[in-house]
Design goal:
GO terms for molecular function: porin activity. Pfam families: Porin_4. This is Porin. This protein is an alpha+beta fold. It has two domains: 88 residues; 389 residues, Beta Barrel (Porin). The chain contains four helices and 20 strands. A 16-stranded antiparallel beta barrel has the order 3-5-6-8-9-10-11-12-13-14-15-16-17-18-19-20. Strand 18 and strand 19 form a beta hairpin. It is elongated and about 125 Å long.
Length: 482
């Protein structure tokens, strides 16, 4: 019924417009013809003719102005009838300067996305030795065409505002270009073989309720708080960095994950973020607790309490220098499952904190980041976090980075390291002691959407028993955003 109502409104406006435009021009022409005939027959002299014609033209001007006002009012009334009725629906294209999408009634639908592909060559030392949780493994030189640290993605944001409060539903689909073996979902190990397919990692599905007055509440699956600033500031986010497995690439590479920071991950959460107080914001969330991933130690999969994460940020701009200061933390009980017979002696409280700063001055940007924790493991959250004797392992790491942008070019360099200590009483083994990475990157913006990226990365992994491995990586590719 609403569609007929809207169409009727526009038809009524059209009829009104036609009626208003039909009045006047014929009358105006007839009057002027009559005046000319009276003047030609000598009934009116030139002075009388000019005076009457001038008065008539002035009246026509006033009438035309009234006609224009009436026309605008008729069109406005028709538009209001068609688009603002309580049960009416209207659709319009989103302002291109604000992204891709549309507005359907009071609802905004926005689309954004990215696609990337890289040629990557990895050269490894023939003398490489096994390192458990090392970011370098194997001795084969390999080549691949693959995704970088980002897979592709398509983000859909549906929002509406009512009485100053914005309600949103957000969906993020992250497909890769490489085939996977599907043993662990879309991010399983690569399977570069015929008839295999890539996967879609549905990383984001969450709702938000937000206002400038009270901040934002978020519920669903989205990026975590601890470690998020590190990966989002990593220049390798738009490139490759560590390859993981380059012979059989999965949907993503590593960037500086495991060589500078622990991956924040996308996690189920209920999170509150404060309003902006002069550049200061704080977030606190309740998170789904995660299992430990056993590396020369036990699995702990009992979850009798949630995990907690928090983050504070402060943004500033002095005119010459701008930047962000940030700090975060994570805490979770690592509990044994009695149903699975896991060792209760290994139960512990895992925690970590991170701090960092990103400064910009003209085209220059500097990043410094550091984390320290107990029982959180390395590379991924709770990977190798507990030793076989049930004691938690300490871990720490840092990342330093500098970039400079001039025109369409950006050049950058970074160095990162992650360390995993032996637990108290744990014997030396091939467990990783350190993973380090040195990266050089150059970018060139082809157009507004597309960027060409080239990289060189050198990586080293070293175990507590002295085993080590090294890798040199060359990558060249392109990434597109819209």
């Amino acid at each position: 019924m609403s569609g007929y109502k809207g169409i009727g409104g526009w038809l009524l406006g059209g009829v009104a417009l036609c009626g208003l435009l039909a009045a006047g021009p014929a009358h105006a022409d007839a009057t002027e013809d009559l005046l000319r005939q009276l003047k030609a027959k000598g009934i009116l002299n030139q002075q009388e003719y000019n005076a009457i014609l001038g008065r008539k033209q002035a009246e026509d001007k006033v009438a035309a102005q009234k006609q224009e006002e009436a026309t605008a009012a008729a069109v406005a009334a028709a538009k209001a009838e068609a688009t603002q009725g309580g049960d009416s629906l209207y659709v319009k294209v989103k302002d291109p300067s604000k992204g891709i999408g549309m507005q359907v009634g009071p609802v905004d639908i926005a689309l954004s996305g990215s696609i990337n592909a890289f040629y990557v060559h990895s050269g490894k030392d023939d003398g490489n030795q096994p390192v458990a949780l090392g970011t370098v493994g194997g001795t084969d030189d390999t080549s691949s065409v693959r995704n970088g640290l980002l897979p592709g993605f398509l983000k859909i944001d549906v929002t509406t505002t009512d009485d100053g409060v914005t309600y949103g539903g957000h969906f993020g689909l992250y497909p890769g270009i490489n085939s996977v073996n599907w043993t662990n979902g879309a991010n399983s190990a690569g399977a570069p073989q015929g008839l295999a397919t890539s996967g879609i990692d549905f990383r984001q599905v969450y709702m938000t309720v937000a206002s400038d007055r009270f901040g934002e509440f978020k519920a669903g699956r989205d990026i975590g708080l601890f470690g998020s600033e590190a990966i989002l500031s990593d220049m390798l986010l738009l490139g490759v960095g560590g390859t993981g497995s380059n012979a059989a690439p999965s949907n993503t590479s590593l960037g500086h994950i495991g060589t500078g920071y622990i991956y924040t991950d996308f996690q189920p959460q209920i999170t509150y973020t404060t309003p902006d107080f002069g550049g200061f914001k704080a977030s606190l969330g309740i998170f789904q607790p995660l299992d430990t991933v056993a590396v020369l130690g036990p699995n702990l999969t009992g979850h009798d309490s949630p995990g907690f994460q928090g983050k504070v940020t402060y943004d500033f701009d002095t005119g010459d220098i701008g930047g962000r200061l940030f700090a975060g933390g994570v805490v979770q009980e690592l509990s044994a499952s009695q149903d699975k017979g896991e060792p209760s002696a290994a139960e512990t409280t895992a925690y970590a904190v991170d701090v960092g700063a990103k400064l910009t001055w003209g085209g220059a940007s500097l990043l410094g980041y550091y984390y320290n924790g107990k029982g959180v493991g390395t590379t991924g959250l709770f990977y190798g976090s507990v030793a076989a004797n049930g004691e938690a392992r300490d871990s720490q790491g840092f990342l330093v980075q500098g970039t400079y942008t001039f025109g369409k070019f950006m050049v950058g360099a970074s160095y990162g390291a992650s360390y995993l200590d032996l637990a108290h009483g744990e014997a030396s083994s091939i467990l990783v002691e350190s993973n380090t990475s040195t990266a050089l990157q150059a970018r060139y913006s082809l157009r507004k959407w597309a960027t060409v990226v080239g990289e060189y990365i050198h990586m080293d992994s070293e175990a507590h028993d002295g085993s080590d491995a090294s890798e040199d990586i060359f990558a060249l590719g392109t990434i597109l955003f819209f």
